[in-house]
Protein backbone atom coordinates (compact mmCIF):
# COMPACT_ATOMS: atom_id res chain seq x y z
CA UNK A 1 0.00 0.00 0.00
CA UNK A 2 1.34 3.43 -0.89
CA UNK A 3 1.25 5.90 1.96
CA UNK A 4 -0.15 8.48 -0.40
CA UNK A 5 -2.38 6.27 -2.51
CA UNK A 6 -5.40 4.09 -1.98
CA UNK A 7 -4.96 0.89 0.01
CA UNK A 8 -5.92 -2.44 -1.53
CA UNK A 9 -9.66 -3.10 -1.56
CA UNK A 10 -11.11 -5.48 0.97
CA UNK A 11 -11.84 -8.93 -0.44
CA UNK A 12 -15.34 -9.91 -1.48
CA UNK A 13 -16.52 -13.44 -0.70
CA UNK A 14 -13.05 -14.95 -0.85
CA UNK A 15 -13.15 -17.90 1.49
CA UNK A 16 -16.12 -16.37 3.34
CA UNK A 17 -14.33 -13.70 5.41
CA UNK A 18 -15.96 -12.95 8.73
CA UNK A 19 -16.30 -9.22 8.16
CA UNK A 20 -19.57 -8.92 6.27
CA UNK A 21 -21.78 -6.11 5.04
CA UNK A 22 -24.67 -5.38 7.40
CA UNK A 23 -28.13 -6.68 6.72
CA UNK A 24 -30.69 -3.97 7.46
CA UNK A 25 -32.45 -3.83 9.74
CA UNK A 26 -29.79 -5.18 12.10
CA UNK A 27 -30.90 -7.43 14.92
CA UNK A 28 -31.47 -5.47 18.08
CA UNK A 29 -30.95 -6.69 21.61
CA UNK A 30 -32.52 -3.80 23.49
CA UNK A 31 -35.70 -5.65 24.42
CA UNK A 32 -33.85 -8.76 25.47
CA UNK A 33 -31.48 -6.69 27.57
CA UNK A 34 -34.30 -5.39 29.73
CA UNK A 35 -35.55 -8.89 30.44
CA UNK A 36 -32.14 -10.31 31.19
CA UNK A 37 -30.49 -7.39 32.98
CA UNK A 38 -31.05 -8.90 36.42
CA UNK A 39 -29.07 -11.95 35.40
CA UNK A 40 -26.37 -9.79 33.83
CA UNK A 41 -26.91 -11.39 30.44
CA UNK A 42 -27.64 -9.93 27.04
CA UNK A 43 -28.95 -12.09 24.23
CA UNK A 44 -30.01 -11.30 20.70
CA UNK A 45 -33.68 -11.89 19.99
CA UNK A 46 -33.24 -13.11 16.44
CA UNK A 47 -31.82 -16.46 15.45
CA UNK A 48 -28.24 -16.23 14.24
CA UNK A 49 -26.73 -18.60 11.70
CA UNK A 50 -25.11 -21.67 13.18
CA UNK A 51 -21.71 -20.45 12.02
CA UNK A 52 -22.18 -17.19 13.90
CA UNK A 53 -23.01 -19.08 17.08
CA UNK A 54 -19.90 -21.21 16.66
CA UNK A 55 -17.80 -18.09 16.22
CA UNK A 56 -19.38 -16.53 19.31
CA UNK A 57 -18.05 -19.35 21.46
CA UNK A 58 -14.63 -19.45 19.83
CA UNK A 59 -11.63 -17.68 21.29
CA UNK A 60 -9.79 -14.95 19.41
CA UNK A 61 -6.04 -15.23 18.98
CA UNK A 62 -5.59 -11.57 18.06
CA UNK A 63 -7.39 -8.33 18.94
CA UNK A 64 -6.84 -5.28 16.73
CA UNK A 65 -7.98 -2.09 18.51
CA UNK A 66 -8.57 1.04 16.42
CA UNK A 67 -9.33 4.46 17.87
CA UNK A 68 -10.62 7.05 15.40
CA UNK A 69 -10.19 10.16 17.51
CA UNK A 70 -13.14 12.55 17.24
CA UNK A 71 -15.46 10.03 15.59
CA UNK A 72 -19.07 10.03 16.78
CA UNK A 73 -21.53 7.17 16.53
CA UNK A 74 -23.63 9.49 14.37
CA UNK A 75 -20.68 9.99 11.98
CA UNK A 76 -20.30 6.24 11.57
CA UNK A 77 -24.03 5.79 10.94
CA UNK A 78 -24.05 8.70 8.47
CA UNK A 79 -21.19 7.19 6.49
CA UNK A 80 -22.52 3.64 6.41
CA UNK A 81 -25.97 4.81 5.31
CA UNK A 82 -24.31 6.37 2.27
CA UNK A 83 -21.77 3.59 1.72
CA UNK A 84 -23.50 0.30 2.58
CA UNK A 85 -20.84 -1.79 0.82
CA UNK A 86 -17.88 -0.07 2.46
CA UNK A 87 -15.28 -1.72 4.70
CA UNK A 88 -16.75 0.10 7.70
CA UNK A 89 -20.16 -1.31 6.82
CA UNK A 90 -18.68 -4.81 6.54
CA UNK A 91 -16.97 -4.36 9.89
CA UNK A 92 -20.23 -3.38 11.56
CA UNK A 93 -22.13 -6.17 9.82
CA UNK A 94 -19.59 -8.75 10.92
CA UNK A 95 -20.04 -8.21 14.64
CA UNK A 96 -21.73 -6.27 17.42
CA UNK A 97 -22.40 -2.53 17.21
CA UNK A 98 -23.08 -0.64 20.45
CA UNK A 99 -25.07 2.42 19.44
CA UNK A 100 -25.03 4.14 22.84
CA UNK A 101 -21.38 4.00 23.90
CA UNK A 102 -19.75 6.77 25.89
CA UNK A 103 -16.13 7.60 26.59
CA UNK A 104 -14.63 8.99 29.80
CA UNK A 105 -15.07 12.39 31.43
CA UNK A 106 -12.89 14.34 30.86
CA UNK A 107 -13.13 13.28 27.23
CA UNK A 108 -9.47 13.79 26.39
CA UNK A 109 -7.06 11.54 24.50
CA UNK A 110 -5.17 10.32 27.54
CA UNK A 111 -8.02 9.41 29.90
CA UNK A 112 -9.95 8.08 26.89
CA UNK A 113 -7.21 5.74 25.69
CA UNK A 114 -6.12 4.81 29.20
CA UNK A 115 -9.74 3.95 29.99
CA UNK A 116 -10.02 1.63 26.99
CA UNK A 117 -6.88 -0.25 27.99
CA UNK A 118 -7.28 -0.36 31.79
CA UNK A 119 -11.04 -0.45 32.34
CA UNK A 120 -10.84 2.55 34.66
CA UNK A 121 -12.18 6.08 34.91
CA UNK A 122 -9.83 9.02 35.63
CA UNK A 123 -10.42 8.92 39.37
CA UNK A 124 -9.14 5.35 39.41
CA UNK A 125 -6.34 5.60 36.86
CA UNK A 126 -5.17 9.00 38.10
CA UNK A 127 -5.08 10.31 34.51
CA UNK A 128 -7.39 13.29 33.91
CA UNK A 129 -5.86 14.88 30.81
CA UNK A 130 -2.67 15.01 28.74
CA UNK A 131 -1.39 17.99 30.73
CA UNK A 132 -2.33 18.10 34.41
CA UNK A 133 -1.00 18.85 37.89
CA UNK A 134 -0.14 16.74 40.90
CA UNK A 135 0.06 18.44 44.29
CA UNK A 136 2.23 15.61 45.67
CA UNK A 137 5.00 15.50 43.06
CA UNK A 138 8.02 17.77 42.72
CA UNK A 139 8.67 19.99 39.69
CA UNK A 140 10.77 18.70 36.81
CA UNK A 141 14.46 19.24 37.39
CA UNK A 142 14.29 18.93 41.17
CA UNK A 143 17.44 17.28 42.52
CA UNK A 144 17.40 18.37 46.16
CA UNK A 145 14.17 16.71 47.23
CA UNK A 146 14.39 17.03 51.00
CA UNK A 147 12.23 19.97 51.98
CA UNK A 148 11.27 20.79 48.38
CA UNK A 149 7.80 22.28 47.96
CA UNK A 150 5.45 19.78 46.30
CA UNK A 151 3.25 20.61 43.35
CA UNK A 152 4.19 19.86 39.74
CA UNK A 153 2.86 19.93 36.21
CA UNK A 154 2.47 16.47 34.70
CA UNK A 155 2.95 17.04 30.99
CA UNK A 156 2.19 14.06 28.73
CA UNK A 157 2.38 16.00 25.47
CA UNK A 158 5.07 16.47 22.84
CA UNK A 159 6.96 18.58 25.38
CA UNK A 160 8.44 15.37 26.84
CA UNK A 161 10.23 14.50 23.59
CA UNK A 162 13.98 14.79 23.30
CA UNK A 163 13.18 16.88 20.22
CA UNK A 164 9.53 17.76 19.81
CA UNK A 165 10.16 19.40 16.43
CA UNK A 166 11.24 16.11 14.86
CA UNK A 167 8.90 13.38 13.66
CA UNK A 168 11.15 10.79 15.31
CA UNK A 169 10.95 12.67 18.67
CA UNK A 170 14.71 13.18 18.68
CA UNK A 171 16.05 9.77 17.68
CA UNK A 172 18.08 11.40 14.93
CA UNK A 173 17.01 9.37 11.91
CA UNK A 174 18.23 10.50 8.50
CA UNK A 175 15.85 10.74 5.57
CA UNK A 176 12.68 11.70 7.41
CA UNK A 177 9.79 11.38 6.89
CA UNK A 178 10.38 8.42 4.58
CA UNK A 179 12.55 6.65 7.14
CA UNK A 180 10.11 7.01 10.04
CA UNK A 181 9.33 3.29 10.20
CA UNK A 182 12.92 2.86 11.42
CA UNK A 183 11.93 4.70 14.59
CA UNK A 184 12.52 2.68 17.74
CA UNK A 185 9.73 0.70 19.35
CA UNK A 186 11.12 1.72 22.74
CA UNK A 187 9.25 5.02 23.00
CA UNK A 188 10.36 5.70 26.58
CA UNK A 189 13.96 5.98 25.39
CA UNK A 190 12.97 9.16 23.50
CA UNK A 191 11.58 10.91 26.58
CA UNK A 192 13.78 13.61 28.08
CA UNK A 193 13.89 12.73 31.81
CA UNK A 194 14.73 16.32 32.74
CA UNK A 195 11.20 17.27 31.69
CA UNK A 196 9.49 14.73 33.93
CA UNK A 197 8.03 15.47 37.38
CA UNK A 198 10.03 14.06 40.26
CA UNK A 199 8.76 11.46 42.70
CA UNK A 200 9.59 12.73 46.22
CA UNK A 201 9.82 9.14 47.49
CA UNK A 202 12.72 8.28 45.19
CA UNK A 203 13.91 11.74 44.11
CA UNK A 204 13.90 10.41 40.55
CA UNK A 205 11.96 11.45 37.43
CA UNK A 206 8.58 9.75 37.15
CA UNK A 207 7.99 8.29 33.69
CA UNK A 208 4.44 8.19 32.28
CA UNK A 209 4.11 4.43 32.84
CA UNK A 210 5.02 4.96 36.49
CA UNK A 211 2.45 7.72 36.85
CA UNK A 212 -0.41 5.38 35.94
CA UNK A 213 -2.03 3.98 39.08
CA UNK A 214 -3.28 0.71 37.56
CA UNK A 215 -2.11 -1.97 35.15
CA UNK A 216 -3.10 -2.26 31.50
CA UNK A 217 -4.28 -4.90 29.06
CA UNK A 218 -0.73 -4.94 27.71
CA UNK A 219 0.64 -5.73 31.19
CA UNK A 220 -1.70 -8.70 31.54
CA UNK A 221 -1.07 -9.99 28.02
CA UNK A 222 2.71 -9.84 28.47
CA UNK A 223 2.52 -11.77 31.73
CA UNK A 224 0.54 -14.42 29.84
CA UNK A 225 3.36 -14.71 27.30
CA UNK A 226 1.52 -12.91 24.48
CA UNK A 227 3.02 -10.39 22.06
CA UNK A 228 1.89 -6.76 22.20
CA UNK A 229 2.24 -3.66 20.02
CA UNK A 230 0.71 -0.19 19.76
CA UNK A 231 1.05 2.99 17.71
CA UNK A 232 0.09 6.48 18.89
CA UNK A 233 0.90 10.18 18.54
CA UNK A 234 3.44 10.94 21.31
CA UNK A 235 6.21 8.97 22.99
CA UNK A 236 4.41 9.87 26.23
CA UNK A 237 2.04 7.01 25.35
CA UNK A 238 4.66 5.06 27.25
CA UNK A 239 1.90 5.37 29.86
CA UNK A 240 0.12 2.44 28.17
CA UNK A 241 3.02 0.19 29.12
CA UNK A 242 1.51 0.19 32.59
CA UNK A 243 3.39 0.19 35.89
CA UNK A 244 5.64 -2.65 34.74
CA UNK A 245 7.11 -0.33 32.13
CA UNK A 246 7.29 -3.15 29.58
CA UNK A 247 3.69 -4.00 28.70
CA UNK A 248 4.13 -3.00 25.05
CA UNK A 249 6.91 -4.75 23.17
CA UNK A 250 6.68 -2.49 20.12
CA UNK A 251 5.44 1.07 20.77
CA UNK A 252 5.68 3.13 17.57
CA UNK A 253 4.94 6.77 18.39
CA UNK A 254 5.94 9.30 15.73
CA UNK A 255 5.46 12.85 17.01
CA UNK A 256 2.32 14.40 15.53
CA UNK A 257 3.10 17.91 16.78
CA UNK A 258 6.51 18.03 15.12
CA UNK A 259 7.23 20.17 12.09
CA UNK A 260 5.40 18.59 9.16
CA UNK A 261 8.12 17.93 6.61
CA UNK A 262 7.22 19.30 3.19
CA UNK A 263 4.72 21.79 4.62
CA UNK A 264 5.19 25.47 5.57
CA UNK A 265 7.47 26.22 8.51
CA UNK A 266 5.64 26.34 11.81
CA UNK A 267 2.98 23.84 10.75
CA UNK A 268 2.81 20.51 12.51
CA UNK A 269 1.02 17.43 11.19
CA UNK A 270 -2.33 18.62 12.65
CA UNK A 271 -2.41 22.03 10.96
CA UNK A 272 -3.05 20.70 7.45
CA UNK A 273 -5.44 17.81 7.03
CA UNK A 274 -3.50 16.30 4.14
CA UNK A 275 -0.50 16.20 6.46
CA UNK A 276 -2.56 14.43 9.12
CA UNK A 277 -3.61 11.78 6.61
CA UNK A 278 0.03 11.33 5.61
CA UNK A 279 0.98 11.01 9.28
CA UNK A 280 -1.78 8.46 9.94
CA UNK A 281 -0.52 6.55 6.92
CA UNK A 282 2.78 5.80 8.64
CA UNK A 283 0.97 4.16 11.54
CA UNK A 284 -1.28 2.26 9.14
CA UNK A 285 1.80 0.84 7.44
CA UNK A 286 3.18 -0.15 10.85
CA UNK A 287 0.01 -2.07 11.69
CA UNK A 288 -0.01 -3.77 8.29
CA UNK A 289 3.55 -4.91 8.93
CA UNK A 290 2.45 -6.29 12.30
CA UNK A 291 -0.46 -8.14 10.70
CA UNK A 292 2.13 -9.73 8.42
CA UNK A 293 4.03 -10.95 11.46
CA UNK A 294 6.81 -8.36 11.56
CA UNK A 295 7.71 -5.58 13.95
CA UNK A 296 6.38 -2.14 13.00
CA UNK A 297 9.37 -1.40 10.77
CA UNK A 298 9.25 -4.79 9.00
CA UNK A 299 12.77 -5.52 10.17
CA UNK A 300 12.27 -8.61 12.33
CA UNK A 301 9.72 -11.39 11.93
CA UNK A 302 8.25 -11.69 15.42
CA UNK A 303 4.72 -12.96 14.88
CA UNK A 304 1.42 -11.11 14.76
CA UNK A 305 0.69 -9.53 18.15
CA UNK A 306 -2.15 -10.80 20.30
CA UNK A 307 -3.06 -7.20 21.22
CA UNK A 308 -2.18 -4.35 18.87
CA UNK A 309 -3.59 -1.31 17.12
CA UNK A 310 -3.38 2.42 16.57
CA UNK A 311 -5.18 5.73 16.73
CA UNK A 312 -6.26 7.87 13.77
CA UNK A 313 -5.99 11.67 13.97
CA UNK A 314 -7.26 12.78 10.56
CA UNK A 315 -10.96 12.85 11.49
CA UNK A 316 -10.16 14.96 14.54
CA UNK A 317 -8.30 17.62 12.56
CA UNK A 318 -11.05 17.64 9.92
CA UNK A 319 -13.51 18.48 12.70
CA UNK A 320 -11.33 21.17 14.27
CA UNK A 321 -9.91 23.06 11.30
CA UNK A 322 -12.15 25.77 9.77
CA UNK A 323 -10.81 24.72 6.37
CA UNK A 324 -7.96 22.76 4.85
CA UNK A 325 -6.92 21.69 1.37
CA UNK A 326 -9.65 23.87 -0.14
CA UNK A 327 -12.42 22.15 1.83
CA UNK A 328 -14.56 23.44 4.69
CA UNK A 329 -13.98 21.66 7.98
CA UNK A 330 -16.43 20.56 10.62
CA UNK A 331 -20.15 20.12 10.10
CA UNK A 332 -22.52 21.78 7.64
CA UNK A 333 -25.44 21.56 10.06
CA UNK A 334 -26.11 19.67 13.28
CA UNK A 335 -24.47 16.26 12.84
CA UNK A 336 -24.02 16.60 9.06
CA UNK A 337 -20.34 16.23 8.09
CA UNK A 338 -18.93 18.89 5.82
CA UNK A 339 -16.75 18.12 2.80
CA UNK A 340 -13.42 17.85 4.66
CA UNK A 341 -14.83 15.55 7.32
CA UNK A 342 -16.63 13.44 4.72
CA UNK A 343 -13.33 13.02 2.88
CA UNK A 344 -11.65 11.88 6.08
CA UNK A 345 -14.36 9.39 6.91
CA UNK A 346 -13.66 7.89 3.49
CA UNK A 347 -9.93 7.93 4.27
CA UNK A 348 -10.42 5.99 7.50
CA UNK A 349 -12.77 3.62 5.69
CA UNK A 350 -10.03 2.86 3.15
CA UNK A 351 -7.51 2.14 5.89
CA UNK A 352 -9.93 -0.18 7.68
CA UNK A 353 -10.41 -1.90 4.34
CA UNK A 354 -6.66 -2.36 4.07
CA UNK A 355 -6.55 -3.98 7.52
CA UNK A 356 -9.42 -6.34 6.74
CA UNK A 357 -7.86 -7.29 3.42
CA UNK A 358 -4.49 -7.99 5.01
CA UNK A 359 -6.03 -10.07 7.79
CA UNK A 360 -7.80 -12.14 5.14
CA UNK A 361 -4.63 -12.43 3.05
CA UNK A 362 -2.71 -13.74 6.06
CA UNK A 363 -5.56 -16.12 6.99
CA UNK A 364 -6.06 -14.25 10.26
CA UNK A 365 -9.59 -12.96 9.72
CA UNK A 366 -11.13 -15.99 11.46
CA UNK A 367 -8.87 -15.63 14.49
CA UNK A 368 -8.86 -11.84 14.86
CA UNK A 369 -11.40 -9.58 16.55
CA UNK A 370 -11.37 -5.94 15.46
CA UNK A 371 -12.58 -3.33 17.94
CA UNK A 372 -13.34 0.15 16.60
CA UNK A 373 -14.00 3.09 18.90
CA UNK A 374 -12.68 6.58 19.74
CA UNK A 375 -10.78 8.13 22.61
CA UNK A 376 -13.15 11.10 22.46
CA UNK A 377 -15.73 12.87 20.34
CA UNK A 378 -15.67 16.56 19.37
CA UNK A 379 -17.98 19.46 20.19
CA UNK A 380 -19.97 21.17 18.86
CA UNK A 381 -21.36 19.28 15.88
CA UNK A 382 -23.74 22.21 15.33
CA UNK A 383 -21.65 25.04 13.85
CA UNK A 384 -24.22 27.66 14.84
CA UNK A 385 -23.67 26.79 18.51
CA UNK A 386 -19.94 27.63 18.50
CA UNK A 387 -18.86 30.30 20.98
CA UNK A 388 -15.10 30.84 21.24
CA UNK A 389 -14.00 32.39 24.54
CA UNK A 390 -10.53 33.57 25.52
CA UNK A 391 -9.91 31.63 28.72
CA UNK A 392 -6.62 33.43 29.25
CA UNK A 393 -8.48 36.63 30.04
CA UNK A 394 -10.76 34.79 32.48
CA UNK A 395 -7.84 33.26 34.36
CA UNK A 396 -5.87 36.51 34.42
CA UNK A 397 -8.92 38.18 35.92
CA UNK A 398 -9.29 35.44 38.53
CA UNK A 399 -5.66 35.75 39.60
CA UNK A 400 -5.91 39.53 39.79
CA UNK A 401 -9.08 39.37 41.88
CA UNK A 402 -7.49 36.86 44.27
CA UNK A 403 -4.39 38.99 44.79
CA UNK A 404 -6.49 42.11 45.29
CA UNK A 405 -8.48 40.34 48.00
CA UNK A 406 -5.35 38.79 49.54
CA UNK A 407 -2.50 41.33 49.57
CA UNK A 408 0.86 39.64 49.22
CA UNK A 409 -0.59 36.47 47.73
CA UNK A 410 0.59 35.02 44.44
CA UNK A 411 -1.52 33.67 41.58
CA UNK A 412 -4.36 31.40 42.65
CA UNK A 413 -4.22 29.23 39.51
CA UNK A 414 -1.34 26.76 39.59
CA UNK A 415 -2.31 25.04 36.34
CA UNK A 416 -5.19 25.15 33.88
CA UNK A 417 -6.40 23.06 30.95
CA UNK A 418 -9.36 24.46 29.05
CA UNK A 419 -10.67 23.06 25.77
CA UNK A 420 -14.46 22.61 25.88
CA UNK A 421 -14.23 21.96 29.60
CA UNK A 422 -12.38 23.80 32.36
CA UNK A 423 -9.90 22.05 34.66
CA UNK A 424 -8.13 24.20 37.25
CA UNK A 425 -5.61 23.30 39.93
CA UNK A 426 -5.06 25.96 42.60
CA UNK A 427 -2.14 27.01 44.77
CA UNK A 428 -4.56 27.26 47.69
CA UNK A 429 -6.85 24.20 47.87
CA UNK A 430 -8.92 25.41 50.83
CA UNK A 431 -12.70 25.62 50.73
CA UNK A 432 -12.44 29.41 50.84
CA UNK A 433 -10.13 29.50 47.82
CA UNK A 434 -12.09 27.05 45.67
CA UNK A 435 -15.30 28.87 46.58
CA UNK A 436 -13.73 32.20 45.64
CA UNK A 437 -12.69 30.85 42.24
CA UNK A 438 -16.11 29.37 41.58
CA UNK A 439 -17.95 32.56 42.49
CA UNK A 440 -15.63 34.69 40.37
CA UNK A 441 -15.86 32.56 37.23
CA UNK A 442 -19.64 32.19 37.35
CA UNK A 443 -19.97 35.98 37.64
CA UNK A 444 -18.05 36.65 34.42
CA UNK A 445 -19.75 37.82 31.25
CA UNK A 446 -18.19 39.09 28.09
CA UNK A 447 -17.91 38.72 24.34
CA UNK A 448 -16.51 35.81 22.40
CA UNK A 449 -16.99 35.00 18.73
CA UNK A 450 -19.01 32.56 16.69
CA UNK A 451 -18.46 30.37 13.66
CA UNK A 452 -18.47 33.43 11.40
CA UNK A 453 -16.00 35.29 13.61
CA UNK A 454 -18.62 37.82 14.64
CA UNK A 455 -18.96 38.92 18.26
CA UNK A 456 -21.03 36.62 20.45
CA UNK A 457 -21.88 37.34 24.09
CA UNK A 458 -21.42 34.86 26.92
CA UNK A 459 -22.34 34.72 30.60
CA UNK A 460 -21.17 32.70 33.62
CA UNK A 461 -17.73 32.34 32.06
CA UNK A 462 -19.27 30.11 29.40
CA UNK A 463 -20.02 27.51 32.07
CA UNK A 464 -23.13 25.46 32.66
CA UNK A 465 -21.91 23.74 35.82
CA UNK A 466 -18.79 24.30 37.92
CA UNK A 467 -17.70 21.79 40.55
CA UNK A 468 -15.30 23.17 43.16
CA UNK A 469 -13.24 21.54 45.90
CA UNK A 470 -15.06 18.63 47.50
CA UNK A 471 -17.72 18.82 44.75
CA UNK A 472 -15.07 18.09 42.11
CA UNK A 473 -13.66 15.24 44.18
CA UNK A 474 -17.12 13.68 44.50
CA UNK A 475 -17.72 14.09 40.77
CA UNK A 476 -14.64 11.96 40.06
CA UNK A 477 -15.26 9.56 42.96
CA UNK A 478 -12.07 10.38 44.85
CA UNK A 479 -11.51 11.67 48.35
CA UNK A 480 -11.28 15.46 48.88
CA UNK A 481 -7.67 16.51 48.84
CA UNK A 482 -6.61 13.85 46.34
CA UNK A 483 -3.35 15.15 44.88
CA UNK A 484 -4.39 14.75 41.24
CA UNK A 485 -8.06 15.71 41.06
CA UNK A 486 -8.76 19.19 39.63
CA UNK A 487 -9.78 21.76 42.24
CA UNK A 488 -12.38 23.02 39.80
CA UNK A 489 -14.02 21.13 36.97
CA UNK A 490 -16.29 23.13 34.70
CA UNK A 491 -18.78 21.79 32.20
CA UNK A 492 -19.30 24.41 29.54
CA UNK A 493 -22.48 25.52 27.88
CA UNK A 494 -22.98 23.67 24.63
CA UNK A 495 -20.83 25.11 21.86
CA UNK A 496 -18.27 26.86 24.06
CA UNK A 497 -14.64 26.33 23.08
CA UNK A 498 -11.93 28.04 25.10
CA UNK A 499 -9.39 29.52 22.70
CA UNK A 500 -7.78 32.90 22.22
CA UNK A 501 -8.01 32.79 18.45
CA UNK A 502 -10.23 31.64 15.59
CA UNK A 503 -8.22 28.67 14.36
CA UNK A 504 -10.47 26.02 15.96
CA UNK A 505 -14.16 25.34 15.42
CA UNK A 506 -14.45 22.35 17.77
CA UNK A 507 -12.71 20.75 20.73
CA UNK A 508 -13.09 17.92 23.22
CA UNK A 509 -12.53 17.29 26.89
CA UNK A 510 -16.01 18.12 28.14
CA UNK A 511 -19.13 16.22 29.09
CA UNK A 512 -21.56 17.04 26.29
CA UNK A 513 -23.06 14.31 24.14
CA UNK A 514 -20.86 15.48 21.27
CA UNK A 515 -17.79 14.87 23.45
CA UNK A 516 -18.89 11.49 24.74
CA UNK A 517 -21.01 9.65 22.15
CA UNK A 518 -18.48 7.55 20.29
CA UNK A 519 -18.80 4.42 18.15
CA UNK A 520 -18.05 1.01 19.56
CA UNK A 521 -17.91 -2.03 17.29
CA UNK A 522 -16.60 -5.49 18.18
CA UNK A 523 -16.35 -7.57 15.03
CA UNK A 524 -14.83 -10.77 13.68
CA UNK A 525 -13.63 -13.80 15.59
CA UNK A 526 -15.61 -14.81 18.68
CA UNK A 527 -18.53 -12.48 17.91
CA UNK A 528 -21.99 -12.99 16.45
CA UNK A 529 -22.79 -11.10 13.26
CA UNK A 530 -25.19 -8.25 12.57
CA UNK A 531 -26.10 -7.50 16.20
CA UNK A 532 -26.96 -4.01 17.36
CA UNK A 533 -26.98 -3.28 21.10
CA UNK A 534 -28.98 -0.22 22.13
CA UNK A 535 -28.21 -0.28 25.83
CA UNK A 536 -25.74 2.20 27.31
CA UNK A 537 -22.15 0.96 27.51
CA UNK A 538 -18.80 2.58 28.31
CA UNK A 539 -15.53 2.49 26.42
CA UNK A 540 -13.85 1.38 29.66
CA UNK A 541 -15.56 -1.96 29.03
CA UNK A 542 -13.22 -2.54 26.09
CA UNK A 543 -10.36 -3.57 28.39
CA UNK A 544 -12.03 -6.55 30.08
CA UNK A 545 -13.57 -7.49 26.73
CA UNK A 546 -10.13 -7.77 25.12
CA UNK A 547 -8.92 -10.08 27.86
CA UNK A 548 -12.05 -12.20 27.72
CA UNK A 549 -11.73 -12.54 23.94
CA UNK A 550 -8.17 -13.81 24.41
CA UNK A 551 -9.21 -16.24 27.12
CA UNK A 552 -7.53 -14.24 29.89
CA UNK A 553 -8.99 -13.27 33.26
CA UNK A 554 -10.43 -9.75 33.14
CA UNK A 555 -10.13 -9.58 36.93
CA UNK A 556 -6.38 -9.35 36.40
CA UNK A 557 -6.95 -5.66 35.65
CA UNK A 558 -6.73 -3.47 38.75
CA UNK A 559 -9.27 -0.92 37.50
CA UNK A 560 -11.76 -3.63 36.55
CA UNK A 561 -11.76 -4.80 40.15
CA UNK A 562 -11.89 -1.28 41.61
CA UNK A 563 -14.57 0.13 39.28
CA UNK A 564 -16.44 -3.17 38.82
CA UNK A 565 -16.09 -2.78 35.06
CA UNK A 566 -17.87 -5.52 33.13
CA UNK A 567 -16.93 -6.91 29.75
CA UNK A 568 -19.17 -5.88 26.87
CA UNK A 569 -22.15 -8.17 26.21
CA UNK A 570 -21.33 -10.08 23.03
CA UNK A 571 -23.86 -12.93 22.90
Provide an overview of this structure.
It contains 17 helices and 26 strands. It is α/β, with parallel strands linked by helices and 571 residues long. It has two domains: 1-35 and 51-123 and 208-383 and 511-571, Alkaline Phosphatase, subunit A; 387-504, Gyrase A, domain 2, CATH 3.30.1360. The strands form nine sheets. Strands 1, 2, 3, 10, 15, 24, 25 and 26 form an eight-stranded mixed beta sheet that branches. A four-stranded antiparallel beta sheet has the order 17-18-22-21. The chain is globular and about 70 Å long. The two termini are 36 Å apart. Mean pLDDT is 92; it is low at 1-16 and 22-57.
Based on helices, strands and strand pairing, what is the structural class? alpha/beta
Shape: globular
Assembly status? single chain
Tell me the span between the first and last alpha carbons: 36 Å
What amount of the residues lies in strands?
15-25%
The name of the CATH architecture of the largest domain is 3-Layer(aba) Sandwich
* Overall mean confidence score, pLDDT: 92
Please report the first level of CATH classification, the CATH class of the largest domain. Alpha Beta
Number of domains: 2
CATH superfamily of the largest domain: Alkaline Phosphatase, subunit A
Helix share bin? 25-40%
Query: Largest sheet at a glance?
Result: 8 strands, mixed
Q: Which regions have little confidence, pLDDT < 50, spanning 5+ residues?
A: 1-16, 22-57
Number of helices: 17
Give the C-alpha Rg.
23 Å
| Count of beta strands | 26
CATH topology-level name of the largest domain: Alkaline Phosphatase, subunit A
Organism: Streptomyces guryensis
Protein name: Alkaline phosphatase family protein
GO molecular function: hydrolase activity
InterPro entries: Alkaline_phosphatase_core_sf (IPR017850), Phosphodiest/P_Trfase (IPR002591)
Amino acid sequence: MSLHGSPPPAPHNQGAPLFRRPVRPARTVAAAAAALAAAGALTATATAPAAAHAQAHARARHVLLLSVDGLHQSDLAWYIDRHPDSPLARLVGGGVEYTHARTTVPSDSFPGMVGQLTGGDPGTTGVYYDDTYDAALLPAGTTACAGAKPGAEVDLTEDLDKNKDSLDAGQGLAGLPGSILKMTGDAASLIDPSKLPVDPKTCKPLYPHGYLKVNTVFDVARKAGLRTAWSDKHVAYDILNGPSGNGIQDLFAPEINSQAIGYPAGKDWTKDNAATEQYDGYKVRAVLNEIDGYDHGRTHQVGTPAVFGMNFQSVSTAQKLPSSDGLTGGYQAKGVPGPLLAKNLAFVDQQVGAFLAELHKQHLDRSTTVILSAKHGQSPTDPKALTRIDDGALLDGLNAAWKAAHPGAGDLVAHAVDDDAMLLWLTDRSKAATGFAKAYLLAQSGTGNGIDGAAKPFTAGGLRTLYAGAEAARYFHVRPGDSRVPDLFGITRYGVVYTGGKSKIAEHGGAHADDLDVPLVVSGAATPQGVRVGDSVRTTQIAPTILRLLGLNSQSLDAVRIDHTRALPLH
